[in-house]
Write a structure and sequence with these properties.
The protein has 516 residues and is α/β, with parallel strands linked by helices.
């Protein structure tokens, strides 16, 4: 009897982008030891949803109706391939629309699909993981990695195989056009206006990266257009885009209107609108490095989603890689604000030990564990400003920081946990807490309660406890520590901060000190 051939995994992604809708159908591909993706079908349909979001803050329902028609056609195409794995994702244009809940409801009713709206962190996390998968070790040692979105630009430093720093620049190709598009019609110095506008953001990156960054990696929706205009061979996941050709293109377009650019380069007016902003961003960021060429990619977050569906084990490994970069980013931020690293490490270890013991009780996941670890390392950052009300300063510092792997929402949660590590407790009396939805309120309270206990265990900053055990016993959380030192200060602090733990979890927290 003949063995049946192993079926090759196949999947599809529908991407609701700011300028177009896309359908990608692909199957898993393994080239030697490296996993990849073989595209069977790629369809694109132009639809400027982002224009309305960035201009008036809402998506127009007539365009959403058109999007539903396109999605239904995509579903028919996917069905023809026998696709069973299909995800529909959306990013900036949907994420920033104030009427997004109504839009998602209409799409669900008219197409039957549930749209996953990727937040800014997910978008960049996906693309950076995919770029790191294809990048060789030489690139990973020293590079500036740039993702140009329609609404924002992500910049990350890749050093020694990790990402220690990242910056989120709240401008993108389409958003810049919405801000300054009309001026481009009336001035031949539009390129100077762009450079002046970008100066502050570029300076932030410049002061945060070491000298001698060797490589420049870039991807984004407009890279396909730039690759064609510079005659780059873009058939590989990562390809070379000659620096001289990019700079020459910048010179050719900087005094032209979008209409002239469209005519001279045979582009649609929509693509011509975005060409100068993207070229200006690339030129300015490239000048911060010593790269002789650009390493470019046509991959978008939807391609990373597809890769995840086809190679989930590999993508999980890449997530672990990025988590290590998050830890490094947090550590460097703690050092920048002169946090007591020994204290932070001790509090972190103690907080995570209690977190693991109470898994069945708190119902939180690994992502929450990462946020707790970050808060444990950064909760004293505010002392850099002033010891008085340092928890408030810690909150302000953390929420204003770019932490690798975390988006604005998760960074806010870390900041809030830092805010409440002191005797200040979460409650409706605090506007920062009152503004959260119910789910986030509970999440922040649980994590803050755990950090309070852990911080109390090193109240003296002397790391007195070499061993810590946590267990649930007869309706109490019993934490047993071993020490040769006097632990009276820690016992007092534990009693003070343990009150909020009891309020959140309905358990009394009891500290046992054993002399060694």
């Amino acid at each position: 009897m003949l063995n049946k051939a192993k079926k090759i995994p196949t999947a599809a992604v529908i991407d609701i982008g700011s300028n177009e809708l896309r359908l990608h159908i692909a199957q898993a591909l393994t080239d030697g030891e490296r996993e990849g993706v073989k595209y069977l079908e790629s369809l694109h349909y132009p639809l400027s949803l982002g224009h309305d979001t960035f201009h008036v803050g809402k998506m127009r329902f007539d365009k959403v109706d058109k999007a539903c028609d396109i999605i239904n056609n995509f579903l028919v195409e996917a069905k023809g391939y026998g696709i069973r794995q299909l995800r529909t994702v959306a990013s900036t244009a949907a994420r920033e629309a104030t009427n997004i809940n109504y839009i998602l409801d209409q799409i669900k009713i008219k197409t039957g699909v549930t749209v996953e709206v990727m937040d800014e962190a997910d978008e960049k996390r996906h693309i950076y993981k995919l770029l790191s998968h294809y990048a060789d070790e030489n690139l990973k040692q020293s590079a500036l990695m740039v993702y140009i979105g329609t609404g924002n630009i992500g910049v990350s430093l890749l050093k020694d195989g990790r990402i220690p720093r990242k910056w989120n620049i709240p401008v993108g190709s389409l958003r810049i056009w919405e801000l300054f598009g009309q001026l481009q019609e009336y001035t031949r110095e539009f390129h100077r206006l762009l450079e002046e506008y970008l100066t502050g953001f570029i300076q932030q990156v410049k002061t945060g990266i070491p000298e001698g960054v060797a490589h420049f990696i870039v991807c984004g929706q407009e890279i396909d257009m730039i690759a064609k205009l510079t005659r780059a061979d873009s058939h590989s996941p990562l390809f070379t885009l000659p620096k001289e050709r990019l700079l020459d293109l910048c010179e050719k377009i900087k005094y032209k209107t979008p209409e002239r650019i469209a005519s001279d380069f045979d582009l649609s007016i929509e693509k011509a609108d975005s060409l100068m902003p993207v070229a200006s961003v690339l030129q300015n960021l490239l000048s911060l490095t010593q790269a002789k060429t650009l390493t470019a990619s046509l991959m978008l977050p939807c391609d990373a989603v597809l890769f995840d569906m086809l190679h989930p084990k590999r993508f999980t490994a890449l997530e672990k890689w990025l988590t290590k970069s998050t830890k490094l980013s947090v550590r460097l931020l703690a050092e920048r604000y002169h946090c007591d690293i020994a204290h932070g490490n001790q509090v972190c270890d103690q907080a995570l030990a209690v977190f693991d013991k109470l898994k069945k009780l708190h119902g939180l996941g690994n992502r929450d564990k990462q946020l707790l670890a970050a808060a444990a390392m950064l909760h004293e950052a505010g002392e850099y400003v002033n010891n008085r009300d340092h928890h408030i300063h810690s909150y302000n510092i953390v929420r204003a920081s770019d932490i690798v792997g975390l988006g604005a929402g998760e960074t806010e949660i870390v900041a809030l946990i830092c805010r409440y590590h002191s005797l200040l407790t979460p409650g409706e009396h605090d506007p920062c807490y009152a503004a959260l939805d119910r789910g986030k309120k509970v999440r922040v309270s649980k994590l803050a309660a755990l950090l309070k206990l852990a911080d109390a265990l090193d109240r003296s900053y002397l790391q007195k406890f070499s061993q810590i055990e946590a267990k649930l016993f007869e309706g109490e959380l019993v934490i047993t520590v071993h020490t040769q030192s006097n632990a009276a200060l820690e016992q007092w602090a534990f009693g003070e901060k343990g009150q909020f733990f009891s309020e959140v979890f309905g358990l009394k927290a009891h500290l046992k000190v054993r002399k060694t």
